[in-house]
Design goal:
Blueprint: E1 3-5, E2 10-12, H1 13-17, E3 23-31, E4 39-46, E5 52-56, E6 68-70, E7 84-89, E8 99-106, E9 116-124, E10 129-135, E11 144-153, E12 156-166, H2 175-181
Parallel strand pairs: 1-10
Antiparallel strand pairs: 2-12, 3-7, 3-9, 4-5, 4-8, 6-7, 8-11, 9-10, 11-12
Amino acid sequence: MAVNLVKGQRISLEKEAGKAVTRVVMGLGWDTGREQIDLDASCALLGEDKSVLESIYFSNKRSKNGSVQHSGDNLTGAGDGDDEQIKVDLSAVDAAVKHIVFAVTSYRGQKFTSVKNAFVRIVDEATDKELCRYSLSDQFPNTGVIMARLYRHNGEWKFAAIGEPADGRTVLDLKAKMQASIG
């Protein structure tokens, strides 16, 4: 059973999966109700010094070495399950990358107070097992949120829920906030 995370909680992906995890999928899902909302999943790959090495989002769908890939832009949130995905091959992520910070932004500028049932989840791609889920239960008047991060710690990848509100239309607008979220 997946762990339902709360803001600030951290988990070991290996402990949740019961084995080493090499490929994960970050899924984003949401419902919009009457208003059409275009949420976008994105991530930034950060180095030890918190510098942004690369940004992956609808306009740059693949990291330079192919270890991180975006599924493409969903403009409506229609349908069940994940509306957008970012796949990460943890075994192939460049050694210079110490943090992968995930964010969600509202491209058209609607506030998260209009978004229903938004979530991010991490799935072990090999087994399709959901390892953890972070629900966007705090609804705030912002256009973005720094959702979570994967980070290297003592040779393994761990996951931390962040849940920090931000404002911006794309990951490029959130770089400083993403860097600050690492602490």
